[in-house]
Amino acid sequence: MQQVLTTEGVMSLFTECVHRAGEPHDDLLVVQGVLSQENFHKQRIELYREYILAMLAELPESFRTEAGAPFEDAHVDRYAQRWTGLNAMASRLFALGVAIGAVQILGDTGHWPQEGVNPYVRVILQR
């Protein structure tokens, strides 16, 4: 089975979906991620909706519970294999998910990554 969730895949998709300078402002979708605010292109986000959902589905089951899971648990996939060692990659994946309405960031991200503060993230694959 081919692994969908990879650092390279998230970076490539994120780069493709970013709203670029010179593009119409009407196409801008601003979302708050765990680490930063991101600017996406509305149509490109929709174009890749199913791919984003497939990546999110590779995260541990704990992210799909009502309470969500700690942000830092997103470094491994549902098979307990590390897919990234970078908080920035996990944050980018979640920002893509927020953009399609499939991710909720629970709690305050403004004080993270201070010790003892770890935002929880919930993934909603079906509506």
Offer a quick outline of the entry:
With 127 residues, the chain is of the alpha+beta class. 31% of the residues lie in helices and 16% in strands.
How would you sum up this structure, described in words?
With 127 residues, this protein is an alpha+beta fold. It has one domain. The chain contains 4 helices and 5 strands, in the order H-E-E-H-H-E-H-E-E. A hairpin with a 4-residue loop joins strand 1 (28-32) and strand 2 (37-41). Helix 1 (7-17) packs across helix 4 and helix 3 (49-57) packs across helix 4. 31% of the residues are buried. The mean pLDDT is 90.
Q: How many individual domains?
A: 1
Number of helices: 4
Please identify the structural class as seen in this structure. alpha+beta
Kindly report the spatial arrangement of strands forming the biggest sheet: 3-5-4
What's the pLDDT, averaged over the residues?
A: 90
Distance between the termini: 26 Å
Topology:
Blueprint: H1 7-17, E1 28-32, E2 37-41, H2 42-47, H3 49-57, E3 69-70, H4 87-99, E4 103-106, E5 120-123
Helix pairs in contact: 1-4, 3-4
